[in-house]
Structure of Capsule assembly protein Wzi:
Amino acid sequence: MKKLSIIKGALLLLLCIGPLSGLFAQSLSLESNTLAGTKNQLPFWLWANQLGQFDKNSSTIQNFSINAFHGQQIGGSDFSYQVGLDLDLLLADENDIRFTQLFGSMSWRFLQLQIGAFPEEEVYAGLSTTNGNLSASRNARPHPKIRAGFNRYVPVFTDWFFINGFYEEGLLNDDRYVKDTHLHRGNLFFRFGQPKSLQVTVGIEHFVMWGGTHPVLGEFPGWEDYFNYLTASAGGNNVIDKEQLNAMGNSYGVYQIEFSKAWDKLNATLYISHPYEDHSGMEFVNYSDNLIGLHLAFHKQQAHLKNIVFEYFHTKNQSGAYLIGEAPDENGRGRGIDDYFNHGLYLSGATYNKMAMVSPLFAPVLIADGTSRGFENTRFAGFHLGADGLLSETFAWKALLTYSNNIGRHNGQGGTTISPSRKQLSALGQVSWQPLSKKISISTSVAADRGSVYDNGVNTTRLGAMISFNYYFPN
């Protein structure tokens, strides 16, 4: 049966090429990725931030995919549309064929409506540990959603003040603890200034897991309590006491701040991502917990160094070591033990298909009875360095180096669940070649891990490699 499913998958890929080459005339490519790792796993930087394509628990993976995109303006109007897909065939410990991306969108001037499974737009040259946002990375496979909002920063009355944002509703339709959990997301950003002087961007991201069916407690309230979910209000009589204590549903998010300046030969961006789980986080009780990054982009066309990213991350505070509800504030809300991106009722936490939707440094994902049960480790600190550039007109390189010191979670008694701490060092080096014709590209990556985060406290050295081949169909 497994061989038959593989054959069906291969035939589906082949059958898609013909129609897609006409429909997606703007961009169509075939991709092959071959991965291998030692000690029955892949090293961190071979699976992290890959849109959930590769399972870290597979020692060998062969992946074939069709990637297609098409965007077009409708006549001479202000309307345009975009459609895209990534269809993947994976041959690994568990074979699979799936759509990693499948989406369509419609734009009118600065407004946009998007429907389907689509990823976050890549920023900072793809060198960040979490795409610059602790709460929304490119680590997990995109989930189905509907998003309405702006498609760019829109000027408001002047050329120095801009706004951006969107409103989104999605469905976490994977195999998880609370089945068919809804995921709301909304954000709002304000930008001040001009790139040549100094540009400052501030904003907030808000997520709410709501609804769904709990295996013990049954069906949670649905659309009739939608406003209560969004405002993190205490529920009514049909909501259990544990959820009433803090807020209805599972709310979390980040504050985002960015300072950027452009020079003739260099763009510099300083960015900060500050997490919150409840009111204590929103009120900056956890002020020391942040992702702080610096991105330098060099403008020289054939630069040996094109981009460099340095990040420092710290999530150990979590508003203190009090049990939720044990030390309530004057409004009766619990304080402390924020335990970022985990939740007592929505036990799968901010995961999708057993992978972190947030920073992949929240790890490892706990698995029980085939479903994710959140993160074993949410308190860590460390640094990250990423860089890329050109070796010649046709050869490019990329390097990543990440170190973290991990202490698990607050244990409710003033201590931590992991002691002594587990340290982790992960590195990747990549060289890619693309001839001037740009019809193909080939890349080779080598990666290594040294640490105990993924091996139950046992220091382990893990090596791995990936070879990728892309063929781009002519327009």
